[in-house]
């Protein structure tokens, strides 16, 4: 815009008198100074403010006419030169302002900003100095300095252009053809672009049609932007820096002559090798782009908030609010930097649906002014709008398509990459077919195979694969889908509580009636309060750029918000809940309902039904056999039914802070408006309205935490009512149909409920960014889909016994929590009573605190058991599935949180495979061995010994099955009593059947890894002694590493006791496998001596006979012995662990987070950064958020180094599990896992064991540590800045040397694992 006014000024000066010039100059320059929003580079390079001030001072002092004429003519020359320079500049955003100024006057005021001069500090500092020069009358010297500056800028610009063109040519040769095409179009010769812009500007002056305006706006959208220019300048600067670095290399070598020659030579070789790898690996550019995006992710939450707000406004139909908000954000440069192309596209889609082409043109203009380049979404919106408009000229569509082509995009990209809603795709296709009648989108499946050699054969050689079918007909599966769809559409589900089986008393009926009456009243009050608060919100924060909660409170019906509030009151524990947790839970429920409604509005439900109905053909038992995986079949069906909305990636996740803010607002309404009469339970009390919720503060450790606590009256009413129903979110329940297969990082699991592929900390985005950039995650998707496709059923006899004990008085021994009536009574005393001494008062206070803590723990455990048993009871006659996802290390988990096979002994005992398989010749033996494993009695016996033991106690087994509660109760003594009882019943049914080999068993048999973390360490280090200790080596009987360590510790203790050490003497007879097991198990996962001491202390306290006064000293003593024993037994393990720890320490010290890629290609990054405090201000309280995942903060070195070894091992055990699951699926097996514990039918245990061992050997036959070393060297040492040698060269050198020195391996032969019976057993 400033350029346009400068042009008009030049014309004015050319044909007006000198007096007119003075007036014109004052007016025009005032405009030039006040506007800069359309230009990326400020016009402050030419000090217009300075000139205006100089000239005004000259005029005010009435100098002679010659000086004025001379100065004006000099200034005219300068302005003309500046205009020519700007017109030939690579940065064309200045010219975009012409479009806005001429054709969009309504946006002109909104886009311009009066804050330009205020932000230009450079101009301010120059003004006083120049002002002094003008006052002295030396005006002739100043214009010559301007001209000199202009000429220097022109020379520098020409040099930059030449270097830039050379760099582009070099890059074009190095890059792939597809990429070079895109880069070439994004760096068009400036002359061509300028010509396009100039011609469009000429047309605008003459007054053009609406279609011409859109055409030129779409055309200009593809031109070079400020971002391109800045990147080019940055590349130029980097290349110059590299030249300087190469010149200074000799001096650096001289400075390091004092170092050892060997190290120096090794470092030089490493640097040379890394440089070669950098040159060869094209994907490094992807890494660099990721680093750029991650450095710019500081405003990620702000961008997400802006996008969420716009989408919410659009969803509720408040287009005016959304448009005003976008324009107000764009208007100010400090807020404009948070806008992305996708944000502008949101409004483009709105106007595209309305067919208003001129509004889309205006948004294109705003994007250009922001220095943003249109993407496929932008072009899609423009073409969709043309498709909706029957009068759109084909010429306009052609011009748009041509401009897309120049911008490196093709029409197929639109259909392949865009996320469509409703009929957007059809309208886009209609527009394209207007000019290309024969065009059909060319959509191809992503056939790229995983680069990992571990699964190449799995995907390429399928002739022997036998993919299992589910034991359902296609019609049954389609009915299951409809049931699950109904549940998810409702978002919540109400089920019967197992406590409803208790006999109903008169008091229970009374309390239930009271609660129902109160809830009806609370609903009316909350509805009124919500509407009043919404009215207040519409009148406050009326500034367009302010984010307001109002749109989020209109996403659902008012009654739905009230139902969410009432449900949260019912679920509130008596001890209360943290405001932060409660607020996030409420915000998340609103978000889930909003996502489901969004999918309804976008027309996704009908398309999902159509694709799923066809997908069931792959799974059903009454259809033909397919040789494809579920993911492949789903993608194929999506491609075939491409018309209509896109199923994937439709919803935008809300920021954590937004959910908290919205939830806090809702909680505030509840606290202020929910009241009850104080005499409702006791008419003797005075009647007054009291709140049922209290906002109070409590201390968690040393921090003060806001709490929402229910009034004791409400708690008493709920406990005495023992209500018959429970209400859950639909995502809490298992699915009633096979889950949607994971096909991308954003789509899979539930039908409508949003789910994440990777579980992360709230607000952490680095994992999602890595996954999106990962080229191929097919093995990970396919493994998760295999786990999710396992159908389950309830073991009804076991469930009924558990519920009967639960409704009686519970049982601590059997892990069934008792009711609160069994809780210890809280003692009451008066602290002011003088009868108590100070020590007695302190003792009583501790008693009260302990009693309250015990009550709170009992309530939590009781409610957890109630939820699990009620869900199991609800599913007792149904078949169901558990959708799976994973954590950031790749470990898999079922999505439903309460009831799943990863739960406790009680939960696992109630689960059975829905599909049954005959036991076969060895199935009954495996059931017996599994039962003995569950008892924990014969851990060091051979399989044959366990089988003989099972046969010897067959009478007890049958008695347990027949009389579990009234017989000998042998099963109650097992380590896992409920699973043991379930196995007893299965064995009893099998041996009593006519032919046990044909008995159809649904029971899952487990094969557990023998200290799996140490197994991976031993395999990595090829450690013979360590491998033998953890059963990688074939042995006659299983080696128990826990017993081995306990024995070693006992030997050391005996020696110390003989020397007279008192604590060693006290520990005589108390050192057992159980005391050391947890510490040995977790040492491999990074437990410290402090943590190990706490574990041993807990075990010693469980021993009633051990003197409690010696617990502290004994735990200190034992943890030292355990660590010493492990160091001797696992030398290779300790070396690898130390190497991983030190590597992570040096990497994080250099300012990086540790990142690696699993052998299956899953990228992993540790999200541990230094904690940053963020205060969320609300009307209730200020919530202090401790954010430890912010990529702007430096890494937390302690967490990074301590977590790397266990996280790396977890990533390996998850890889082993995924490989096993894939090959079990191709062999037709039913397979599920609990991390390192694998489950299958008794019939197929031998097959699963064979696959498990083969995949472990295949995994560790890969050069895992060497591959990790190469990755870390390339990641962290290839991009080191050379100037850092002066400051941090020692750390850089140490990191390079450490990463290059991979720990030496031993002589263990991995192939022996295939022969090891007890590797998994």
TrEMBL record:
<dbReference type="GO" id="GO:0006390">
    <property type="term" value="P:mitochondrial transcription"/>
</dbReference>
<keyword id="KW-0548">Nucleotidyltransferase</keyword>
<dbReference type="InterPro" id="IPR037159">
    <property type="entry name" value="RNA_POL_N_sf"/>
</dbReference>
<feature type="compositionally biased region" description="Low complexity">
    <location>
        <begin position="216"/>
        <end position="238"/>
    </location>
</feature>
<dbReference type="InterPro" id="IPR002885">
    <property type="entry name" value="PPR_rpt"/>
</dbReference>
<comment type="function">
    <text>DNA-dependent RNA polymerase catalyzes the transcription of DNA into RNA using the four ribonucleoside triphosphates as substrates.</text>
</comment>
<feature type="compositionally biased region" description="Basic and acidic residues">
    <location>
        <begin position="242"/>
        <end position="263"/>
    </location>
</feature>
<dbReference type="InterPro" id="IPR046950">
    <property type="entry name" value="DNA-dir_Rpol_C_phage-type"/>
</dbReference>
<keyword id="KW-0496">Mitochondrion</keyword>
<dbReference type="InterPro" id="IPR043502">
    <property type="entry name" value="DNA/RNA_pol_sf"/>
</dbReference>
<comment type="similarity">
    <text>Belongs to the phage and mitochondrial RNA polymerase family.</text>
</comment>
<dbReference type="InterPro" id="IPR029262">
    <property type="entry name" value="RPOL_N"/>
</dbReference>
<feature type="repeat" description="PPR">
    <location>
        <begin position="340"/>
        <end position="374"/>
    </location>
</feature>
<keyword id="KW-0809">Transit peptide</keyword>
<keyword id="KW-0808">Transferase</keyword>
<dbReference type="GO" id="GO:0003899">
    <property type="term" value="F:DNA-directed RNA polymerase activity"/>
</dbReference>
<dbReference type="InterPro" id="IPR011990">
    <property type="entry name" value="TPR-like_helical_dom_sf"/>
</dbReference>
<dbReference type="GO" id="GO:0034245">
    <property type="term" value="C:mitochondrial DNA-directed RNA polymerase complex"/>
</dbReference>
<dbReference type="GO" id="GO:0001018">
    <property type="term" value="F:mitochondrial promoter sequence-specific DNA binding"/>
</dbReference>
<feature type="region of interest" description="Disordered">
    <location>
        <begin position="169"/>
        <end position="264"/>
    </location>
</feature>
<dbReference type="InterPro" id="IPR002092">
    <property type="entry name" value="DNA-dir_Rpol_phage-type"/>
</dbReference>
<keyword id="KW-0804">Transcription</keyword>
<comment type="function">
    <text>DNA-dependent RNA polymerase catalyzes the transcription of mitochondrial DNA into RNA using the four ribonucleoside triphosphates as substrates. Component of the mitochondrial transcription initiation complex, composed at least of TFB2M, TFAM and POLRMT that is required for basal transcription of mitochondrial DNA. In this complex, TFAM recruits POLRMT to a specific promoter whereas TFB2M induces structural changes in POLRMT to enable promoter opening and trapping of the DNA non-template strand. Has DNA primase activity.</text>
</comment>
<keyword id="KW-0240">DNA-directed RNA polymerase</keyword>
<dbReference type="Pfam" id="PF14700">
    <property type="entry name" value="RPOL_N"/>
</dbReference>
<feature type="compositionally biased region" description="Polar residues">
    <location>
        <begin position="183"/>
        <end position="200"/>
    </location>
</feature>
<feature type="region of interest" description="Disordered">
    <location>
        <begin position="111"/>
        <end position="146"/>
    </location>
</feature>
<feature type="domain" description="DNA-directed RNA polymerase N-terminal">
    <location>
        <begin position="482"/>
        <end position="789"/>
    </location>
</feature>
<comment type="subunit">
    <text>Homodimer. Component of the mitochondrial transcription initiation complex, composed at least of TFB2M, TFAM and POLRMT. In this complex TFAM recruits POLRMT to the promoter whereas TFB2M induces structural changes in POLRMT to enable promoter opening and trapping of the DNA non-template strand. Upon metabolic stress, forms a complex composed of FOXO3, SIRT3 and mitochondrial RNA polymerase POLRMT; the complex is recruited to mtDNA in a SIRT3-dependent manner. Also forms a complex composed of FOXO3, SIRT3, TFAM and POLRMT.</text>
</comment>
<dbReference type="Pfam" id="PF00940">
    <property type="entry name" value="RNA_pol"/>
</dbReference>
<protein>
    <recommendedName>
        <fullName>DNA-directed RNA polymerase</fullName>
        <ecNumber>2.7.7.6</ecNumber>
    </recommendedName>
</protein>
